């Protein structure tokens, strides 16, 4: 497999914002992801009241599912439009707070559920700002990260992990010569070396 064709590709934050503005958001799943339902038990591992992190969250409906189950959800997303659509589409009230540690960032805090969404770059977060997490739902996240940033991304996720955390990762398998991505093709061998 030749993943070389994708390794130099960079999608800028501006390009992501434009996708949201133009409605080019085919990655969004109205019905939620079947794999989260399938592997929910693995994520929860018999625990309740978890802190669950959604990197590069978009307006993933799974954030509401998990909050409705009593977990507390934290997401991060560069597009404020995406986050506002999330709250609007679920009729969830929220308030906006500045994030003093990150210049230009905002936190959109749901006032009826435990859902806190940071509007900033994923790379601006740290465990001192967002805390650590018991569970991770990584769908459209690692595979959306620019290939050159993968190690940085995974290293950050590791710093956000609580002891005994579980990490659900969804990847896509296809011939990287036939599609430029995102989503990018991340071979299993690379996953193993990234996450150790
Ligand atoms: N996980 C979501 C969205 C996947 S698409 C889902 O399952 O539907 C990837 C998302 O990451 C886009 O909404 C894009 O705006 C956002 N994004 C891209 N780079 C980012 C970054 N550096 N920090 C935060 N969000 C980012």
**General shape:** globular
* CATH fold annotation: Rossmann fold
Q: CATH architecture, please? A: 3-Layer(aba) Sandwich
> CA-to-CA gap between the ends?
21 Å
| Secondary-structure-derived class | alpha/beta
Strand order of the largest sheet: 3-4-5-2-1-6-7
Largest sheet: 7 strands, mixed
CATH H level, superfamily name: Vaccinia Virus protein VP39
| Top CATH class | Alpha Beta
Provide the helix percentage. 25-40%
> Which molecules are bound besides the chains?
S-adenosyl-L-homocysteine
Element string (H = helix, E = strand): HHHHEHEHEEEHEHEH
Mean pLDDT: 96
The strand count comes to 7
Low-confidence spans = none
Total helical segments: 9
Provide a brief overview of the structure.
The protein has 196 residues and is α/β, with parallel strands linked by helices. It has 9 helices and 7 strands, in the order ααααβαβαβββαβαβα.
Would you write up a description of this structure?
The protein is an alpha/beta fold and 196 residues long. It is built from nine helices and seven strands; from the N terminus they run ααααβαβαβββαβαβα. It has one domain: Rossmann fold. It has helices at residues 4-7, 13-22, 34-38, 40-44, 62-68, 80-89, 127-130, 150-159, 188-195, and strands spanning 51-54, 72-77, 94-98, 106-110, 115-119, 133-139, 161-170. Strands 3-4-5-2-1-6-7 form a seven-stranded mixed β-sheet, sandwiched between helices. β3 and β4 form a beta hairpin. The longest helix is centred in the first third of the chain and has 10 residues, at 13-22. The two termini are 21 Å apart. It binds S-adenosyl-L-homocysteine (SAH). S-adenosyl-L-homocysteine binds next to α2 and β2. Keywords: Cytoplasm, Methyltransferase, S-adenosyl-L-methionine, Transferase. This is thiopurine S-methyltransferase. Its main location: cytoplasm.
